Every structure is written in structure tokens, then in C-alpha cells.
Amino acid sequence: MPELPEVEIRRQYLETSSLFQPIQHIEVEDKKLLTTDYATLTNALVNRQFTGTRRVGKNLFVMTDAPDISVRMHFGMTGDLAYYHASLDRPRFARIVFEFSSGYNLGFLCPRKFERVGLVSDVDAYLRDKKIGPDGLDISLQELTDRVRRKKMVIKAVLLDQYVVAGLGNWIVDEVLFQALVHPAQRADILTDAQLAQLHDAIHLVLETAIRHEATYRDFPNSFLIHVREWDDSPYDDVEAHKFCPRCRTRIERSTVGGRTTFYCPNEQLLIQA
Q: Which one, 18, 27, 179, 249, has least CB within 10 Å?
């Protein structure tokens, strides 16, 4: 599933390819992928231009030259973008295509049809209505502290709550907690100021690392917990060797915390009782 880093990479791709080109037509293969009916979508966007982007968590908003018209893209399980010349074959799974007067197209790829596109008139109002909190890369330490300490729940579940902080998925939260030396089952409301500062720093470290490496997990530093996970494209011949903490060599434990599969180091991520 595209996480915040993948969506940020798609945002950058769209910005460098598809801005300031009038839209002359929108081809939609499956109208069930739209959250706005097709006629309204085309009436609003034809002859308009994309002028900029904003990403909040896993939501990508594309601004237009009309102040009250933005496009929301949600990439579902496997969504992606493809910018290509109209003379070329349409990319596989490009079920929604924005056709520009420049002769180029932007395809919204929907392999599993969980992806969605629709219009938003006010991005901030949309975020409030959907209870989407500050983005993981934008949230301040004070905001994070205030939001986390309101919760008498395990910190893993709190960080996965998109209203607390937007864009942190399961593997990202495991990595953040590992880098911050915080146990995933630690109660959120008793975290110290130092632990919260470590969490804030770790959120930036993990997200910025993932974006820098274009979310190619095998390229992450050896000091990252993510290598414990058995990705299909794991580059390691000896997978068992990567089941140990890269810092202290303790065997990584796997359990269920907050209803989600969780990896952590039992030696360094200690559970502190209230």
C-alpha cells in the first residue's frame, strides 16, 4: 500500500510533469473510481490547469487555477501516476487519464480499483471533516506532545491514528518507535518529554530516509529495523541474519500490539509501567 513516502514521491512526480497545461479532456474507464460524478468533474476541470500540489498524509491534493477547485487523489492499495505522450499506448491500469492540450497525458493507475479521484472545494475543510491531523513531516514537537498525551492507549495505536498525525503506516510506526527507543506497548500519556522529542526526531528521520531512497526498502541504512521484515525483493541471501537488532544484536521480537503485527527490540525498547 502506498504510504506517506510513496505519495510524496508521486506528488513530486506530478509537480515536475503536469503543471500549467490546459486540460482538454478526461477519460474515465471506470466511473466507480470517482468520488465526484463524471459530468461535474469534467465541467469543473476542462480548460483548467493544475497549478500546484499539497500532500497531507496519504492524500494528494492538486490545485487548479480556480481557487475553489482542487483534485483529491487517493492511491488506495497500489495506485500510481504515469505521464506520457498521447502518441504512445495508454499505460496498463490507467483507468483515469487527464489529457492536456500539450499533447501529453497524465494517467492515474488503478490496478486493484481501490484508488479514488474527486473534487474538493476547500482542502482544510475536507481535512477537518475527515478528521485528518497534521502531516507527519509538518507536525511540530508541541503539536505531537499535545496530541499524544491526550491518549491513554499504547503508543503504537496512537501513532497509527490519522487524526493524531497523518501518514504513518504500520511499518513506519515500528521504525519510528525502534529509532526512538520506545516500546510499542508503552502507554502514550506517560511518555517523558525526552521520549516525545525522540519520537518527533524519529518521525522525520524515517520519513525523510524513505523519500530519499524512493521507498526502496532494500536501500535503507543497515541501522533500520525494516530489514527484519521479509519483503519480496529482499536482497539478502541469509534472511535469518537480519532478524537481530542492528545495534545490540538481540533477536527482534514479533508480536501483536494494537491489533497490528509489530516488530521491536526487547533489549532496547523497554516497557515502562505507569
A: 249
